Amino acid sequence: MPSYRTSQSTALVVVPERVSRTKTQSNRSKKRSSSFLGQFVLLLALTGVCVSLVLLYIWQRVYVKDLITEIQGLQQVEAQLQIEHQELQMEYIRLSSPERIEQIATQKLGMRYSDLTTELIVLEVDPDHANTPPASHD
Length: 138
Fold this sequence. Notes:
The protein is mostly helical.
């Protein structure tokens, strides 16, 4: 039902009540839509954070698995190197044994132990006259 208002003049002005209700309803719907939009943005942000955390967790697990695989490979290399080091130590001990050195000296180089009767004569050379030929004794 329209409400009638009178002004100072004799004319009547009709103001429909529906217009005021529509404005109130539009204000409420604006508040609802802005509230809904805020909730939607918040929900979207929380979903983004959750997805980011899940992706971070998955990346971390993959990275740790790769590191474990690398560590295992390095441990295998270390074990092989330790075996090779032990083999080289055994070969060094075998090659540097006094018996082997004596065998090579006598068989391949023709060396022998000296007799007690053998004398060693050492001549002292003067460095100033090292390049001059020795004098003959006729």
